[in-house]
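*** Protein under study ***
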Amino acid sequence: MSYNQILVPVDGSQISFSAVKKAAQIAKAFNSKLTLISLVAEDPFTDADFYYSSAIMKEYFVQAHENATKSLADALEIAKAEGVDAETQVVKGQVSAEGIAETATELKADLIVMGSHGRKGFQKMLLGSFAQDVLRNTELPVLIVKS
């Protein structure tokens, strides 16, 4: 089996950077294209029942985009350290498993590599498992990196 396009969602956490390293190693072995993405919510207050000013929203978008760009720059350095060039993309929309699955389809990815924080018990029940949500929303193979 060969992988032509590998997609890695990056959120700035150590576990997402571990996923980048693993994906870069796979990309190098298969001579694959590597794309690193960071999702930024277009409207984090969609379901809010209060009125907010445009200044608040502008500050949110500026900060969220800066954080995403910084995380992708750090991830790109990890890929380069493994000897792999990667493309980066800030994906605006909904920060969700569906957002990752849709981006994978748009980019014609044939593998998603992502980190899992490995939450258990009450934390998992309360916060859910983002990795499991991605698995449910795509037919693509998903490699879960846990450390």
In short: The beta strands are 5-9, 33-41, 87-93, 111-115, 142-145.
